[in-house]
Amino acid sequence: MLPILLSLYLLIMQLPERASVPSKKMAAEKNLELQIFFPENQKRIQLNSCLNVNVLIINHTDTVTSFFEDWNSWGYFNISFQIRSGDTTYTVYKKDRDWDKNFPSFKTLFPGDTMQMKFSLNINDCDSSPFNGKIQVNSKRPETIKAAYKLNREVLRSADLQGFIMYKEVYIPDKWIVIDSLKAPVEINRTFPVSKLESNEYKL
Which of 17, 133, 141, 158 has its CA at a distance of 20 to 30 angstroms from the CA of residue 3? Predict the structure, then answer.
């Protein structure tokens, strides 16, 4: 009996790994990614009044997705930042503002495309910051920052987007040429993700 059990054990050990492992990895890679990077050296942020932050939305999926631009009311409030310092965590949101011009402009990301947004966060009386919170700098406790993007469904319903069809174009002097389009055109308002996107935490 023992030799038979030993033979079965050796046979099982020689079997190839299950194919489900790489398939899970591939599925995890098909996502919408939110990234933060700092365009300037921010190692001595306590000496600056503003912290310049760039946020990237990267489409790693195999389909199109759309995001409202930050300058209009449909996209302005969708970005927030979460700051963690020691045991304290707080979130800074966009300030209210008036709109002298406002319509739901957006950017459609095809697979592999990236959308970039630039922000200034308040550290020490940053007049240009559109956010209502201030980052509390403490040299004894390392701060981290995380970005979040969330589109409100009601905001999406209020946008007049019926009838838009998606195309990807390239500019050649004096003309625009369509280089790609969906095989089955979809109304553009169906491509806006409403699930919350969060970046990794980044040290300040």
Answer: 17
The tally of CA atoms less than 13 A away on the side-chain side of residue 133 is 14
Q: Read off the CATH number of the domain in which 47 is found.
A: 2.60.40.2360
- The larger pLDDT score, comparing residue 112 to residue 137, is at 112
Question: What are 114-127's pLDDT values in tens digits?
Answer: 999 999 888 877 88
What is the per-residue pLDDT for 11? 45
What is the C-alpha end-to-end distance of the chain, expressed in Å? 63
| Residue for token pair 């002097």 | 173
- pLDDT: is 117 or 39 the higher one? 117
In the three-class reduction of DSSP (H, G, I as helix; E, B as strand; rest coil), residue 122 is classed as strand
121, part of any domain = yes
Residue 199 lies in a domain: yes
Establish if 170 belongs to a structural domain: no
Question: Is this prediction's pTM over 0.85?
Answer: no
**Residue 178 within a domain:** no
CA-only gyration radius of the chain, Å: 23
Q: How far apart are CA 88 and CA 83, in angstroms?
A: 8
- What total number of domains does the chain contain? 1
